[in-house]
User: Which sequence fits this backbone?
């Protein structure tokens, strides 16, 4: 079947885009894929903001675990808070601050 005029140009342009997409995709795959954004520089306002948010999340979770300990009829201690910290998945521990978690866990209501 013959393709004429504008249709042929459109088909050829579409084919060229497919080839170009394959080349770009190959380059991205060869380079190790897209890179995650760089972490903010230490001491920058963004870094301070991220640290504050991490500390708050950690203390909030510590208070949740404090309430769980009290719900079992016990009082939070260093040892019990450490056990609760150890129950968290390793990936979860990495995104939290252990000292803020302990502070929230040991804090009086």
Assistant:
């Amino acid at each position: 079947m013959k393709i004429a005029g504008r249709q042929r140009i459109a088909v050829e342009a579409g084919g060229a885009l497919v080839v170009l997409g394959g080349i770009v995709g190959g380059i991205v795959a060869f380079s190790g894929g897209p890179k995650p954004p760089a972490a903010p520089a230490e001491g920058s306002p963004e870094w301070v903001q991220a640290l504050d948010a991490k500390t708050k999340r950690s203390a909030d979770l510590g208070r949740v675990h404090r309430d769980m300990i009290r719900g079992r009829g016990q009082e939070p201690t260093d040892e019990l808070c450490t056990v609760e910290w150890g129950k968290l998945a390793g990936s979860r521990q990495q995104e939290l601050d252990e000292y803020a978690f302990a502070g929230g866990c040991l804090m009086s209501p």
About this structure: The chain has a mean pLDDT of 81. The chain has five helices and no strands.
